[in-house]
Design goal:
The chain is α+β, with helices and mostly antiparallel strands. It has five helices and nine strands; from the N terminus they run βββββαααββββαα. Helix content is 30%, strand content 36%. Mean pLDDT is 77; it is low at 1-27.
């Protein structure tokens, strides 16, 4: 488990912060298939720094809903896909790439679904596949 300087212990979706005999529990985001995202991003080397930054921020986040996400990523959107479910879309490297994830706010899990260029995203074919 990684320990942040603030004393927050990151691991398996739960974080604990202990101060002066008070224990505060909160759910941190857990990224499912981080390795898949990094492999996809390697196909687009210009995106790697931004993807790594997104991963650091997302892992430390306490997202309970879209409003929490938008405090950090104001342009994040929920998009309905072919299955009728909603996925979250993040702009990466400004407008060059789109990261598409399924966020389960109740468990703090983020599932990586797609990483697309802006041109691939704009074709909307990905929506029918999800």
């Amino acid at each position: 488990m990684a320990r942040l300087q603030s004393g927050v212990n990151l691991g398996l979706g739960e974080c604990r912060l202990t101060m002066l005999n008070w224990c505060i529990h909160f759910v941190c985001v857990r990224i499912i298939k981080q390795s898949t995202l990094l492999a996809l991003a390697e196909k687009h080397p210009k995106s790697l720094t931004a993807i790594r930054s997104w991963l650091v921020v997302a892992k430390q986040a306490e997202w309970r809903g879209l409003n929490d996400v938008r405090r950090t990523y104001p342009h994040a959107d929920l998009v309905e896909v072919g299955s009728g479910k909603k996925v979250m879309v993040f702009n990466i490297c400004g407008n060059a790439y789109r990261l598409i994830v399924a966020v389960h706010f109740n468990t703090g899990m983020v599932y990586i679904l797609r990483f697309l260029t802006h041109a691939e995203y704009s074709k909307d074919q990905w929506k029918e596949q999800l």
